[in-house]
Fold this sequence. Notes:
2 helices; mainly alpha; single chain
Amino acid sequence: AKDKITSEISKIPESYQRYLDIIYNISKKKKGGWVTNKDIRLI
């Protein structure tokens, strides 16, 4: 059970990093404009 918890935790930073990468890529396209949830959903 302890290993399962550890693997659940290790999944979080990876998906969060991907999320940040998406936001970064959108903001580059928008020339630094604010990134909305709608923009993220288009990916």
